Amino acid sequence: MIWKFFKEYRLWYSLYAIMSALYFLMFYLYRLPLSYFINSLILNLTLLILVTIWQYHKFKQKLNILHHFIYVEELKELRSPSERSYQDLIAKLKDKESEESFAAKAEMEEWQSLIKMWSHQMKVPISALSLMAQTDHLESNEVQQQLMKLQNYLDSLLTYMKFSQNKDDFRFEEVSVSSLIREIIKKYRITFLAKNLSVTIQGDWLLKTDKKWLSFALSQVLDNAIKYSKNNGSIDILITDSSITVADKGIGILDEDLPRLFEEGFTGYNGHKHQKATGLGLYMTKKILENLNLTIEISSQIDKGTDVIISKTTKDNDDKP
To answer: Domain Histidine kinase: where (predicted)?
Structure first.
């Protein structure tokens, strides 16, 4: 503790020693009586010792406070301007730490809720497969359909994890939207057949974009169209050189749910009723499309169907004179 004290105030003690040496040199050079210098030195040293004892006591108290304080209010005994500045800095750091801790806790709770929700959804196809195995009714199409559901849930979870970590791995290339949609439909063919859905595709769009991420976004849109389509229904896809429209004739979406469809975690009435939504598909779709300079709009009517329109982002960047 003593060594720390002298290390803290070494500049002042060094200055005192230098000043004393200079005064001695002046007395010596001008042949002044050294007894005056010695008496002055003794008096100054006495004062210095007393001040040192008092200052050391304050220094020791300050270190004890700093070593054991928990709340910033405990530092109020430190009153010098620099110590007040340190208090303000510590308060800001503790506030920032509290905010980060709260954010981390909220994120952890969100992930726990998400995992529980995904686990609950994955139990449905697993239970279906288990029941088919127990009853020896392992129909090929039904097994493939349940396995596809599991794969889609896992793909969505992994994509969300990657998406939430803000990993920008976009690679733009020229993509035929019509060919990409046909690949996605081929992937979902078992589900189309299970609900006896027909699909029509008109037009094409050679779009410079990231094929993988656009495929994920379109898969989410088509997956929703399939989920909420009625048996023996149809899905019409119209592609122009600036937009993609996916129209189904399914159960539709409530008007009050439309403004919140792209909110993270929002499932809406259909998602609750049919237990088919995680509330993340459209949220991720919108964010991904924004990164691809595309927009998404949804219009719907109950029992008449839903139209999803993906189009180029309009930019009014022309400078006006």
So the answer is: 117-316
- Name residue 243's amino acid: S
Q: Which two tokens stand for residue 207?
A: 């779009």
Q: What is the CA radius of gyration of the chain?
A: 37
Per-residue pLDDT of the chain (321 residues; tens, 9 = 90+): 788 888 888 888 899 899 999 989 988 888 888 888 899 889 999 999 999 998 888 878 777 766 766 555 556 666 667 666 666 777 788 778 888 888 888 878 777 776 776 777 777 788 888 888 888 777 777 787 788 778 777 777 777 777 666 655 778 999 999 999 999 999 888 888 888 999 999 999 999 999 988 998 999 899 889 988 989 999 999 999 999 999 999 989 888 888 888 887 666 655 545 445 556 778 888 988 998 999 999 999 998 999 999 999 875 434 433
**Nearest-angstrom CA–CA distance, 257 and 266:** 9
The region that residue 197 occupies, defined by phi over 0 for left and psi between -120 and 50 for alpha, beta otherwise, is: beta
* Strands 172-176 vs 206-210: parallel, antiparallel or unpaired: antiparallel
63 half-sphere exposure, CB direction, 13 A CA radius: 10
The amino acid present at 179, given as its one-letter code, is: S
Backbone angles phi, psi at 267, to 5 degrees: -110, -30
Q: Does residue 129 contact residue 136 with C-beta atoms inside 8 Å?
A: no
- What backbone phi and psi angles, to 5 degrees, belong to 317? -100, 5
Q: How far is CA 199 from CA 185, 193, 216, in A?
A: 9, 11, 19
pTM of the model: 0.59
Measure the CA–CA gap between 320 and 318, rounded to whole angstroms: 6
Distance CA(211)–CA(202), nearest Å, equals: 20
